[in-house]
Amino acid sequence: MIAVLTNIFGLPHLELIEDALQDTFVKATLQWRKKIPENPEAWFIKSAKNRTIDLLRKVKADQVRSDKISHGAASIHLNDLFLDHEIEDSQLRMIFVACHPELAPEEQLAFALKIISGFSLKEISAALLTKEETIKKRLSRARKR
């Protein structure tokens, strides 16, 4: 099967093809418990081919994203973002975001507890004596604004 897929996609993608085959084996073991297809080899080749195509698309999309990041303000190296003064600036920025006047006070509080303090939905809802679903909606509205 590796030979068939390598013939289709080329030898430079050998590692990706092997990953696709592994994924397809896992999928087959789960799906075939219920019912084995009429032509297992054809199913496997088609599924592995489709998985390889999916992985190639993902690799291409990741490459396009990284090319875009290499220009402008987004090109700051990731390590530079974790310097002490950058962390403080980022935290301060998030505090200002949480206090933005467009947010309702309930949304500000839920947003601050979740994003800045790292509380879970369950913890926030317990602290505010509110349903988790309500907190989830508040956070969703806050993120949209």
In one word, what is the shape? Answer: elongated
Kindly, what is the distance between the CA atoms of the first and last residues, rounded to a whole number of angstroms? Answer: 50 Å
Sheet with the most strands, sense and barrel status = none
Compute the CA-based radius of gyration: 24 Å
Question: For this entry, what is the oligomeric state of its chains?
Answer: single chain
Which consecutive residue ranges, at least 5 long each, have pLDDT under 50? none
Number of domains: 2
Q: Estimate what percentage of residues fall within beta strands.
A: under 5%
Reading the helices and strands in chain order gives HHHHHHH
* Count of β-strands: 0
- Helix/strand structural class: mainly alpha
User: Mean pLDDT across all residues, rounded?
Assistant: 84
Helix percentage range: over 70%
The number of helices is: 7
